[in-house]
Amino acid sequence: MNHVRVLRGVVGAAGFAVAVEAVGLSGLVDERFLPRMSTILVGAAGLIVDPEFLADVVATLTAWALGLLLTVAVAVPAGLTLGALPAAERAVRPLIEFLRPIPSVAIIPLAILLFSDNLHLKLAVIVYASSWPVLINAIYGLRDVDPLAKETLRGFGFGPMSVLARVALPSAAPFIATGVRVASGIAIILTVSAELLAGGSEGIGIFITEAAGGNRIDLMLAATLWAGLFGVLSNAVLVAVERRLFRWHHARSEAAR
Amino acid sequence: MLEITELVHSYGSHRVLDGVSLSVAEGELVSVVGPSGCGKSTLLRSIAGLIRPSGGQILLGGRPVDQIPDNLAIVFQDYSRSLFPWMTAANNVALPLRRRGLDRRRRREAAMAALDQVGLADAGGKYPWEMSGGMQQRVSIARALAYRPSLLLMDEPFGSVDAQTREDLEDLVLRVCAHHGMTILLITHDIDESVYVGDRVIVLTRSPARVSADLKVDLGASRDQIATRQLDEFVRLRAEVGRLVRGGSTTATTVLEQH
Ligand SMILES: Nc1ncnc2c1ncn2[C@@H]1O[C@H](COP(=O)(O)OP(=O)(O)OP(=O)(O)O)[C@@H](O)[C@H]1O
Ligand SMILES: [Mg+2]
Fold first, then answer.
1. A·B CB contacts under 8 A
2. Average pLDDT for residues A236-256, to the nearest whole number?
3. Which of the listed residues A13, A39, A85, B164 has the most CB atoms within 10 Å of its CB?
4. Which ipTM did the prediction report?
C-alpha cells in the first residue's frame, strides 16, 4: 500500500517534469525564463560536484540543524510546562493566538535590524517560526493524556512527578515528535527565506540570489530543487523514526481505523 | 478495616450515591452487586481517593480517606485504558513494583509469576494492543495481584473473559486473598459470582444507590466451582440476591417484577 503511494507520487512528479519539458520543446515560452526540465536536471546534477554550492548547502543545513535543535530545546520544555499548568496556559493563550497567525517571513526584516551576526539572525528566525507546532503539540499532547492512565499510577501511590514522567510524557511523546517533524519543514523554509532576504556570505538562498544576478534561471531552479528534495527527505526520515519509536501509537491508531 | 458511613455523591445535580453505609473487615472479600449505572464505580473511586465524595465518611484503617490510600491496588472496569500501550505486558505488571523498592530483576520475576498465575506465561513480551480484551483484562488483574496490596479494589474484573477463564480467575482471587491476607472489594453484576467469591454480598439499589441488603455468605472458606454451586445455601443466596437486584424486598417472591 505504501509502495503504491510512493509509486503514484513518482508518477505525478515525472508527469510534471515531462510537461515542463514539453512546454520548453514546443517553444511557447522563452527558454531564458522557463528553462527545459532536462536543463534544470543537468544543472542540478552538476551542482553535486560544485564546491561552491556544496559549501552553501553545508551553511544552510548547519543553520537548519542548529535552529531545529534550539527549537526543540526551547519549545518542548515550554510546551510541557504550559501543558502541565493549565492556569499558565490560559494566561499565555491570547498571546499565542495573536502571534501564531503572523506569517513568520514577515519578522525577518525585524530580525535583520536586531541581529548583526548572520547566523544568529537565521537561528532567531528559525526558532521563532518552528517553535509553534512543537509548542502547540506539546501542550495538547500533555493535556489530552488519558486521565484513567494517570489515575492508574496514582492509585498505586505514585506522586505527581512520577505520573508526569511515566505516563504523561510517554503519552505526549508521539505528538511532540510530529510537531518536531512539522517544525523541520518550516525550519528549512525559514533558513532559505532568511538567506534570500538578509543576504550573507553562504547558503542555498545566497546561491539562488547570485544565480539570479547572473541571469541563470536554470541554476536558480536547480538549487531550489535540491532545497525541496532535502525537505522531502528529512520529512521521510523523521516519519520513519516516529513509526519506529512510537510503534505502539501508530499500531493503535491503525487498529482503531 | 474499611468503614463507610452515609456516603453521598453527586455529579453536578445528578445524585449517584445516596447514603451508602458498609464496612469491610480485614481479610474479608466483599462483593458488591447492583444494577448497571447505579453508582458502583463511583463508590469504588471514592474509596480509592480518586474522587472526593460530596458527603459522608470513609475510614480506612481508622483514618479518613482524604487522599489516595497507601498500599492499594485497583483493577479498573476500563482495563484497556488503564494499561500503558508503550510497555509490554510484563513491564506493565512490573511498573508499580517500583513502589515496593524491588530491584529490576525481582520486579521482572514477580511480574512473570503474576502473569503465569493468570494464564499469560507466554504473553509477557506482548504489547497491550497486540492482545485480546480478555488478555488485557488478565494483565491488569496480574498487575494488581503482583503488587500485593492490603486493599484490593476490583471493578467488574472478569467481564471480558470466557466462562472457563472466569472460573479460574475467581478461584485465583480466592486463593490469593486467603494466602496473602488481602482485603478485597469486588464489584460485579454477575449474581452467581457475587455469591461464589464473597464472604458477604452487598446489594445496591437502583440509582441513586443505597445499600439494600448486606448478606452473609455461609459457604465456608474453601469453595469449589461445581460442588459449592450445588449447595442449597448457594442456590438460596443466589435467588435472594437476584430478587434484590431486580428491586424486590428480601422476603417477597415478586415474580412479576422480573418483567
Ligand atoms: N465523571 C462523571 N461525570 C458525570 N456523571 C458521571 C460520571 N461518572 C459516572 N457518572 C454517572 O453516574 C452514574 C453512576 O455511574 P457509575 O459508573 O458509578 O455506575 P456503575 O454502577 O459503575 O455502572 P456500570 O454497572 O455500568 O459500570 C451514571 O448515571 C453515570 O452516568
Ligand atoms: Mg462501573
1. 54
2. 86
3. A39
4. 0.86
Cα dihedral sign, A96-A98-A104-A110 = negative
Confidence of residue B249 (pLDDT cuts 50, 70, 90): low
Domain count for chain B, please give it. Answer: 1
- CATH, residue B2: 3.40.50.300
- B121-157 b/e (C-beta count within 10 Å ≥ 16 → b): eebbebbbbbbeebbbbbbbbbbbbbbbbbbbbbbbb
Q: Is B40 in the pocket of ligand 1 (CB under 6 A)?
A: yes
Closest partner residue to A148 among B72, B73, B78, by Cβ? B78
* CB distance B148 to ligand 1 below 6 Å: no
Choose, out of A146, A151, A152, A253, the residue to mutate when testing the contact with B (most B CBs < 10 Å): A152
Domain edges within chain A: 1-34, 49-256
CA distance A229 to A231: 5
CB distance B250 to B213 below 8 Å: yes
Mention every residue, 6+ apart, whose C-beta is less than 8 A from residue B198.
B29, B30, B31, B186, B217
Q: Is the pLDDT of residue A26 over 60?
A: yes
Which pLDDT score is estimated for B258? 38
Of B68, B70, B71, the CB nearest to A154: B68
A147 interface with B at CB cutoff 8 Å: no
Residues from chain A contacting residue B127 (CB–CB below 8 Å): 248, 251
Q: Which residue's C-alpha comes closest to atom 20 of ligand 1?
A: B37
Position B115 in a domain: no
* Predicted model pTM: 0.86
Q: What is the average per-residue pLDDT within B94-106?
A: 93
Q: Ligand 2 center to residue B138 CA distance, Å?
A: 18
Range of the structural domain that residue B202 is part of: 1-71+191-259
- Which CATH topology does A49-256 take? MetI-like fold (1.10.3720)
Cell numbers linked to B80:
484497556
